[in-house]
Amino acid sequence: MPVVDGHSITVTHPDKILFPDDGITKGELVDYYQRIAGRMLPQVRDRPLHMNRFPDGIHGIAIQQKRIPDSFPQWIQRVTVGKQGGTVTHALINDTATLVYLANYNMVTAHVWLSRTEAVDHPDLLIFDLDPADEDFGLVRRTALKVKAMLADYQLVAFVKTTGSRGLHVVVPIEPSETFEESHLFADFLAQRLATDDPDHLTTEFIKEQRFSSMSIATPTRKRWSRRMPSARRRAPRSRCRSTGRWSSPLSSARTASRYEVCRIG
């Protein structure tokens, strides 16, 4: 039984296969999150958590879970926030022990809000989600650099994060002074400008069936409880992803935009 941050955590069924294509077990997932915690925690601390759980492995049923179970130990920090028609209490990944506990709870992917608990209705990040219609990563890279240049006109610094799939997230730290709706209007204004300048390749249409061959530029900051828009959360950096089931590739991680410019692919 590992002791993490002073808490004894029992890893149940450590030999259970979660990633069948690679034979990766739950015990190895727990070990991964314990080792990567030092890099991941600064990016997720104090952000309400949305868990993506796979109790039967990534080819089984996916459980999308916001509410922290009553069975969770009290040492796991949490926050209660408003939602349409009531409230929901989320877990917070504020220490390594919590991350290990969640991995044992079969959480493969962690999604966290774009805001922190001290200003939960005011995002401190903007996200430009570049989702290509095909395997043309050159278009993704060129668009990320266009977003970076456009943001520089507003004295905003952009970073890029791999998504675990084919696209990129352009991530922009901002002051948590505006609401989700206000932040979305600004981000959507920039996305519309990009799509207007290159209508043959770019669109702000989120629904894949309506994009045709264009790459989508989504700005998931509109309303944190919206069901019609991309929700105001992001896949946590260093979080494992379901993707195609391969362990070697589905990883969400941060990079600077300049690194993609210099290294071409990153």
Structural features, described:
There is one protein chain. The protein contains five helices and 16 strands. The chain is of the alpha+beta class and 266 residues long. The chain folds into two domains: 102 residues, no CATH class; 111 residues, Alpha-Beta Plaits (2-Layer Sandwich). Strands 13-14-10-12-11-16 form a six-stranded mixed sheet. The longest helix has 19 residues. The C terminus is likely disordered.
Give the amount of beta strand, in percent. Answer: 15-25%
| Largest beta sheet: strand ordering | 13-14-10-12-11-16
Helix content: 25-40%
The CATH topology of the largest domain is what?
Answer: Alpha-Beta Plaits
Low-confidence stretches: 222-231, 244-251, 255-266
CATH architecture of the largest domain: 2-Layer Sandwich
- If you average the pLDDT, what whole number results? 83
Q: What's the main sheet like? A: 6 strands, mixed
Any idea of the CATH class of the largest domain? Alpha Beta
Domain unit count = 2
Q: Spell out the helices and strands N to C.
A: EEEEHEEEEHEEHEEHEEEEH
Overall SS class: alpha+beta
Count of DSSP H/I helices:
5
Task: Choose one word for the global shape.
Answer: globular
Distance from N terminus to C terminus (CA atoms, Å) equals 39 Å
Kindly summarize this structure in a few lines.
This protein has helices at residues 26-44, 96-104, 137-152, 180-197, 257-263, and strands spanning 3-4, 7-8, 17-19, 24-25, 49-53, 63-65, 78-83, 86-91, 107-113, 125-131, 159-162, 168-173, 202-203, 215-218, 233-235, 254-256. With 266 residues, it is α+β, with helices and mostly antiparallel strands.
